[in-house]
Design brief:
This protein is mainly β. It has six domains: about 1-120, no CATH class; about 130-245, Jelly Rolls (Sandwich); about 255-375, Galactose-binding domain-like (Jelly Rolls, Sandwich), CATH 2.60.120.260; about 380-500, Jelly Rolls, CATH 2.60.120.260; about 530-640 and about 645-685, Jelly Rolls; about 695-820, Sandwich (Immunoglobulin-like). Helix content is about 5%, strand content about 45%. It has three helices and 49 strands. The strands form ten sheets. Strands 31, 32, 33, 34, 35, 36, 37 and 38 form an eight-stranded antiparallel beta sheet that branches. Strands 2-1-4-9-6-7 form a six-stranded antiparallel beta sheet, with no helix packed on it. The protein has a six-stranded antiparallel beta sheet with strand order 12-11-14-19-16-17, with no helix packed on it.
Length: about 850
C-alpha cells in the first residue's frame, strides 16, 4: 500500500500508514459537523421567515443562505404598513448547471424587522393614529388596536371592523404631531359623541347623543410637538367620526384695516393684527400713516361661541357699526362723544364672523368692543327656538328674541349654523287684545300652525308654496299667549304672521260676556253667536272667562208672522227672556236644570234679549221658539134693535195669559201697542197642562236614549252603558196603574222587564227606566221598543235607527219622532232641535 502511494507523487508520500488513517477519520468527522450546521441554519431561517409566531425577534448577525429562483420566500405586508423594497435580500444568480442543494454563502441579514405574514391585534409599528376600539365604553382592554392613517370615517349603519358591533362601541385615537406656532381651527364632524384633547387640555367637547354635526374650536398652538387624543362613542343609528384642522391666516386676533379717510374708501393704508379692539388714542392717531382726525378702520375676525344669547358692548367716539355673520347689531354711524352701546344676539354653537367699522371725525378718538354670554336672556318680543330638523325635535340649536315674525329667507338659512332646508321654528309670545273677534293671517312656505290660549286657530301643517291662510277667533279682553310653529322642507322659506280686529257685526245674536254674575262693567268679550245653544258643562264659555260666576246677554231683532209663539228656555242656572223690553220669562234662581215655557202673541219685528248667569258646576243654556197657532179673533158685539146704534166694545182676546209670576219691578210691563192683544206672561213651571198635545190620551213611550257616552244620566257617579234609559209618559188627566206592564226590546236572549206591583203613573207624570234596573240593553245601531199590558196587548211601540252619543229619540208635540241633541229625562221633550 505504501508503494502505491509513493507512485502517485503526492504531498503525503513517505507518511506512515497510521497517520494517513487518522487524517481520513478527522475529515469524515468534519464533514458531518458541517452538514449538521447547515441543517440547523436552514431550520432557524425558515422558522423566522415562514410564519413563526416569534416575528418580533431580529436575528441581526445570523448567517444566511440565498434561495434559488424556485425557492424565493417574500414576507407578506401587514395591513397597516407597506414593506420597504430595500429590505428584501437580493438572490445570488444560479449556476448554469442547477445544483441539487442550495449553495451556502455569507449574506448580512437586514437590520429592520420583517413584516409578519398575517396581522396581529397590535401592529408592530403605528406610524399614524393609534386606534383603540372598545365594545361599550372606553374601559378595560380594547378589542382591537390598529394604525389608522386618518380620523375620517363614515361607517353609516355598519361596524368599524369585523368582530365589533355596529352600535354601542367607542374608540380612542392618540398620536403626536408637530405644529408650527399660530392659531389653529380644529373641526370635529361627529355622530354621536366626541372629545378632543391637546396636551391633555380639552379643546372640543360634544360628548352627547346627536345627529351628524360639525363642531369647531380655535386654539393658539406653540411651535413644536404636541400630543393629540380623540375619544369617540357611537350609541345607535349612523356612525360618523372625522377630525381635521387648519392654521388660520396671519391675523390670529383681529385683522385691522386703517384708512386715512372717514369713508373706508380705497385701499387701506395700514393692515395689521390687533389683539383686541380696545383703543383710546386721545387726540393722537393709530399709526404714523394714519392722521389723528378723519380716519376710519375695519376689524374682522372669526370667533368661536357656545350656543346661547350674547350681549355685545361698544364704547365709541365717534361712529361705529357692528355685524355678526353679516347681521347688523349696532348702528351708530354718527358723531358722538364717548357713549355706551349694547345689543343682544343669539348664536348657534360654532365659529361666527364679527365685523366692526369705526370712524373718527375730530377731537378724541376712542373705541372698545367686547361681548359676554347672557345667562338668563329676555324675550321682550317673540322667543324664537330654531331646530336643524323639520320636527321641532330635541334641543333647539338656536334660541333668540325675534322682534316680529316676518321673514323671507328665500333659499338662505334662518341663521348661520342652521341648514338651508329641513329646519323648524317655534315662536312664543303674548299680545293684548280687546274683547272682539280677530282675524289671524299667515303668509307661509311651507307649513304653519297657530294657537291662541292653546286653542288651535290655523292648521296648515303641510308642504306648500307661498300662500296665505287665515283663522277667526273671538278673544276676551286682555293679554293672551300665542304660539306659532313653522317648518321649511325645501325651496324658498317664508313666514309672516299678523292679525286685526274685525269690524263689529252680529248677523245672528250679539253675545256679550262678563266675568261676573251681575253684568257689571264693560263686557270682556263681544261676539256673534249663531244660536243660543250651549252646553259648556264645567268649562268656560271662552278662554279668559271663568268657568263659574259669569254672565251673558244676547240680543237680536227678529221678525214674526202674526201668531202665538211658544218660547222655550233650558238653563242651568239662571235665565230671563225679554221681548221689546218686557220680561216674558223669568227663572232667575240657582241651579235647576229645567226647561221653561211661555206663550206670547207676536206680529212684526221685535227686539229679543236673553240674559243668563252661571253660578257653579255645570253651565247650560238653550233658547228657542215655535209657532203654535193664529192670533185669537175678536168676538163681534151684536147691535141692539134700536134706532140709535150702540158703540162696539173693545175687542177682548180669547186667550187669557197665565199670571203666576210677577215681573221684576225694574222691567217695564208689556204695552198694548206691541200686538193686537196683550202679551201673556210666563208660567212659573213647565207643566204639561200648559202644552197642548195631539197625542191620544194614553200612557206611551215618550223618549229613549240608547248610546250614553259622557253624561252620568242615572246619577250613580259613573257615565257608562248602564245610563241607557227608556222614558214612559202619562199625558192623560187621570192616573194609570201600570203594575206588571212589560217593556220589551224583542231580544230572545233576555226577558221583558215587568213593572213592579203598585206602580201608578199620575197625570202628566214621567217614569224613566234605566238599564241598571231593567237589564234591557238597547242596540246602538237601532232597535224596537214595545210597551205591553200584562196580557200581552201592545200599548205603544217605537222603532229607531242609529243615533249619536248622548242623543235621545223623542216624540214631539206633533206626534212625530225626532233625534233630540238635548235629552230631557223626566221632563217635556225638547225635540226637534232649535228652530228660529
Amino acid at each position: 500500500m505504501a508503494q502505491n502511494i509513493q507512485r502517485r507523487g503526492k504531498w503525503y508520500d513517505g507518511l506512515p500508514v497510521w497517520s494517513l488513517r487518522l487524517m481520513v477519520a478527522l475529515a469524515v468527522i468534519g464533514l458531518v459537523i458541517v452538514v449538521a450546521d447547515v441543517v440547523l441554519m436552514a431550520g432557524f431561517f425558515l422558522g423566522n421567515v415562514q410564519g413563526s409566531d416569534k416575528a418580533t425577534l431580529t436575528p441581526t448577525a445570523m448567517p444566511q443562505w440565498t434561495p434559488t429562483a424556485t425557492q424565493v420566500i417574500e414576507p407578506s405586508p401587514t395591513a397597516t404598513q407597506t414593506p420597504v423594497a430595500t429590505e428584501t435580500p437580493t438572490a445570488t444568480p444560479s449556476p448554469t448547471t442547477p445544483a441539487a442543494t442550495p449553495t451556502p454563502t455569507t449574506v448580512v441579514w437586514p437590520t429592520s424587522t420583517p413584516a409578519a405574514a398575517t396581522p396581529t391585534a397590535t401592529p408592530e409599528v403605528i406610524v399614524d393614529w393609534r386606534g383603540e376600539y372598545y365594545v361599550g365604553e372606553l374601559i378595560g382592554v380594547p378589542a382591537l388596536v390598529r394604525n389608522d392613517q386618518a380620523i375620517n370615517f363614515d361607517w353609516s349603519y355598519g361596524a368599524p371592523a369585523v368582530g365589533l358591533p355596529a352600535d354601542g362601541f367607542a374608540v380612542r385615537w392618540t398620536r403626536q404631531m408637530h405644529f408650527a406656532g399660530g392659531l389653529y381651527r380644529f373641526h370635529a364632524l361627529v355622530d354621536d359623541g366626541m372629545r378632543l384633547y391637546l396636551d391633555g387640555e380639552i379643546v372640543i367637547d360634544t360628548w352627547r347623543d346627536g345627529g351628524k354635526r360639525e363642531v369647531t374650536a380655535d386654539v393658539r398652538v406653540s411651535a413644536g410637538t404636541h400630543t393629540l387624543r380623540v375619544e369617540y362613542y357611537e350609541h345607535s343609528g349612523t356612525a360618523v367620526a372625522a377630525l381635521w384642522w387648519e392654521r388660520l391666516a396671519t391675523y390670529p386676533d383681529w385683522k385691522g384695516e386703517y384708512w386715512p379717510n372717514r369713508e373706508l374708501d380705497g385701499a387701506p393704508a395700514l393692515v395689521r393684527n390687533d389683539q383686541a379692539i380696545d383703543f383710546d388714542w386721545g387726540k393722537g392717531s393709530p399709526a404714523a400713516a394714519i392722521p389723528a382726525d378723519r380716519f376710519s378702520a375695519r376689524w374682522t375676525r372669526e370667533a368661536t361661541f357656545e350656543k346661547g344669547t350674547y350681549r355685545f358692548y361698544a364704547q365709541v367716539d365717534d361712529g361705529m357699526r357692528l355685524w355678526v355673520d353679516g347681521y347688523p347689531l349696532i348702528g351708530a354711524w354718527s358723531d358722538h362723544d364717548a357713549q355706551w352701546l349694547t345689543a343682544d344676539y343669539a348664536l348657534v354653537e360654532g365659529a361666527h364672523t364679527v365685523t366692526v367699522e369705526y370712524y373718527e371725525r375730530t377731537g378724541n378718538a376712542r373705541i372698545r368692543v367686547w361681548w359676554e354670554k347672557v345667562d338668563a336672556p329676555a324675550y321682550p318680543d317673540w322667543k324664537g327656538e330654531y331646530w336643524p330638523n323639520r320636527r321641532l325635535d330635541g334641543e333647539p340649536a338656536l334660541v333668540r328674541n325675534d322682534q316680529r315674525i316676518d321673514f323671507d329667507w328665500s333659499s338662505r338659512s334662518a341663521a348661520p349654523g342652521l341648514p338651508v332646508d329641513n329646519f323648524s321654528v317655534r315662536w312664543t309670545g303674548k299680545a293684548n287684545f280687546e274683547g272682539l273677534t280677530y282675524r289671524f293671517h299667515v303668509l307661509v312656505d311651507d307649513g304653519v300652525r297657530l294657537w291662541v290660549d292653546d286653542q288651535l286657530v290655523i292648521d296648515a301643517w303641510y308642504d306648500h308654496g307661498t300662500h296665505e291662510v287665515t283663522g277667526d277667533l273671538a278673544i276676551v279682553r286682555g293679554w293672551h299667549p300665542i304660539r306659532v310653529e313653522y317648518y321649511e322642507r325645501s325651496g324658498d322659506a317664508r313666514v309672516h304672521v299678523w292679525w286685526e280686529a274685525l269690524p263689529p257685526s252680529y248677523p245672528d245674536w250679539k253675545g256679550e260676556y262678563w266675568p261676573n254674575r251681575d253684568g257689571s262693567g264693560a263686557p270682556a268679550l263681544v261676539r256673534n253667536d249663531q244660536a243660543i245653544n250651549f252646553d259648556w258643562q264645567e268649562h268656560a264659555p271662552a278662554v279668559g272667562l271663568p268657568r263659574d260666576n259669569f254672565f251673558v246677554r244676547w240680543s237680536r231683532s227678529e221678525t214674526f208672522e202674526p201668531g202665538i209663539y211658544r218660547f222655550f228656555a233650558w238653563a242651568d242656572d239662571s235665565v230671563r227672556v225679554y221681548v221689546d223690553g218686557s220680561l216674558i220669562l223669568n227663572e232667575w234662581h240657582g241651579s235647576k236644570d229645567e226647561v221653561y215655557v211661555t206663550d206670547v202673541a207676536l206680529d212684526g219685528t221685535h227686539q229679543l234679549v236673553v240674559e243668563y248667569a252661571e253660578h257653579a258646576l255645570d253651565a247650560r243654556v238653550r233658547v228657542w221658539w215655535k209657532w203654535t197657532g193664529d192670533l185669537p179673533t175678536p168676538t163681534p158685539t151684536v147691535p141692539a134693535p134700536t134706532a140709535t146704534p150702540t158703540p162696539t166694545a173693545t175687542p177682548t182676546p180669547t186667550m187669557t195669559p197665565t199670571a203666576t209670576q210677577t215681573p221684576t219691578p225694574t222691567v217695564p210691563a208689556p204695552t198694548a201697542t206691541q200686538t193686537p192683544t196683550q202679551t201673556p206672561t210666563a208660567t212659573a213651571t213647565p207643566t204639561a197642562t200648559t202644552v197642548p198635545t195631539t197625542v191620544p190620551d194614553s200612557v206611551r213611550i215618550n223618549e229613549v236614549l240608547p248610546v250614553p257616552e259622557s253624561t252620568d244620566w242615572d246619577g250613580n257617579g259613573n257615565a257608562d252603558e248602564m245610563d241607557e234609559w227608556i222614558e214612559i209618559w202619562n199625558p192623560g188627566e187621570a192616573e194609570v196603574d201600570i203594575s206588571d206592564w212589560l217593556v220589551d226590546d224583542g231580544d230572545p236572549d233576555s226577558a221583558p222587564y215587568a213593572l213592579p206591583v203598585n206602580t201608578v203613573l199620575g197625570a202628566g207624570e214621567y217614569l224613566v227606566l234605566y238599564r241598571q234596573k231593567t237589564g234591557i240593553a238597547l242596540d246602538d245601531g237601532g232597535d224596537e221598543i214595545k210597551l205591553r199590558m200584562p196580557g200581552g196587548e201592545v200599548v205603544d211601540a217605537v222603532v229607531f235607527g242609529q243615533l249619536s252619543p248622548d242623543t235621545s229619540y223623542g216624540q214631539g208635540e206633533d206626534g212625530a219622532w225626532y233625534a233630540c241633541p238635548l235629552p230631557s229625562p223626566g221632563q217635556a221633550n225638547v225635540c226637534p232641535s232649535v228652530t228660529n
